[in-house]
Amino acid sequence: MFLTLLLQAPAGGITQFLFPVAIAAVVYFFMIRPQQKRAATARKFRESLTKGATVVTIGGLHGKVVDVHEESVIVEVDRGTRLKFDRSAIAREVTPAAKAPVTTP
């Protein structure tokens, strides 16, 4: 079907190149550019990790950062249980939720 549409177009002219350029622009603005922004944000977050931050790894493990090295971090997942992870394994930081006031009827 796509081929028949191209064959019906008049030969020559700028319209012949307009469609592929438009598709390339759509792919760039809707797929490539947002992915680059997410990667830059994740890189900036991993560089800014500090001691005491509560984090979640890409595997879903929750813990508190107790030591930060150049290429790795040490996360305490339980009292006395410390695990060493690459910085790239940290997915996000968890912010403590505000406690809702308890109301009694």
TrEMBL record:
Swiss-Prot/TrEMBL GO biological process terms: protein transport
Keyword annotations of the record: Cell membrane, Membrane, Protein transport, Translocation, Transmembrane, Transmembrane helix, Transport
Superkingdom classification of source: Bacteria
Any one Pfam family match given in the protein's UniProt record, by short name: YajC
Membrane topology: Single-pass membrane protein
UniProt-listed InterPro entries: Preprotein_translocase_YajC
Primary location: membrane
Keyword Transmembrane: yes
Membrane spanning residue stretches: 12-31
Signal peptide extent: none
GO cellular component annotations of the record: plasma membrane
Protein's cellular compartments: Cell membrane
Homology family: Belongs to the YajC family.
Protein name: Sec translocon accessory complex subunit YajC
Primary gene name: yajC
